[in-house]
Amino acid sequence: MIDTLKPLIREIPDFPKKGILFRDITPLLANPSGIALAVELLANPFRGKNIDLVVGAESRGFIFGTAVACCLSAGFVLVRKPGKLPHKKVSMTYDLEYGTDTLEMHEDSILKDQRVLIVDDLLATGGTMKACSDLVERVGGKVVGLAVLIELAGLKGREKLNGQAVHSVLKYE
C-alpha cells in the first residue's frame, strides 16, 4: 500500500531554498483513492485505542486530522498560529531552524485525562509536534500517540518527542 502512496508525493528540489528536497503532498490530496488510503493508514493503528480527540496544527494538520477524527469517531481540536482563535487560549513558543514560532489552542478544548492523538502531514525537526504535545499535556490531556503522513527521519524529529509513540506512514531519510 505504501507503494501506492509514494508516487503521489512530488519531489521538488531546491524549494523553498537551495539544498532542500521538498515533499509536495498536493498530488496525493487531489487523488481520491490516494487521500482515502493515506487517512486509513494514519487512523488504523489507533482504532480501538479509545481516542477522544484528534489534534491538528494549522494548516495541513487540519486536512488529515479532521479526516482521522471522523475515522476514529473522535472530536477534533484546532491548534493555530497566534491571533486566530477567539476564546481564552494557551500558547507554546518553540524553536525553528532559524528563529521561533508560536502555536495556540483554546484552553477548554481538551478536558482532563481525555485521550488525544496528534496528527500532521509531516514530522521533520519535531518542533510543531512537540509544541502540540506540550499544549495537550498543559491542559490535562493524555497524548496517546502521534501520527504523520511523512517522516523525514534524517532530521531526527522523533528525538524531541520524549519517547512518545510515533506512527509515520511514509519515511524518507
Would you mind describing this structure in some detail?
This protein is of the alpha/beta class and 173 residues long. The protein has one domain: Rossmann fold (3-Layer(aba) Sandwich). The protein is 26% helix and 35% strand. It is built from five helices and nine strands, in the order H-E-E-H-H-E-H-E-E-E-E-H-E-E. It has helices spanning 2-5, 26-30, 32-43, 60-71, 127-138; strands spanning 10-13, 21-24, 53-57, 75-79, 89-96, 99-106, 115-123, 142-152, 166-172. The strands form three sheets. The chain has a five-stranded parallel beta sheet, with helices on both faces. Strand 1 and strand 2 form a beta hairpin. Helix 3 crosses helix 4 (60-71). It is globular. The mean pLDDT is 96.
Descriptive keywords:
two-stranded antiparallel sheet; 35% strand; Rossmann fold; 26% helix; 173 residues; alpha/beta
Structure summarized in a few sentences:
Helix content is 26%, strand content 35%.
The overall number of domains is 1
Would you tell me the overall average pLDDT? 96
Which strand order does the major sheet show?
Answer: 4-3-7-8-9
Please report the total strand number as a whole number: 9
What is the helical fraction, as a range of percent? 25-40%
Strand proportion: 35-45%
CATH domain class name: Alpha Beta
**Number of helical runs?**
5
Major β-sheet, in short?
5 strands, parallel
| Low-pLDDT windows of residues | none
Taking Cα atoms only, what radius of gyration do you get, to the nearest Å? Answer: 16 Å
* CATH topology group: Rossmann fold
Shape: globular
Elements, N to C (H/E): HEEHHEHEEEEHEE
Straight-line N-to-C gap:
19 Å
CATH architecture: 3-Layer(aba) Sandwich
Structural class, please? alpha/beta
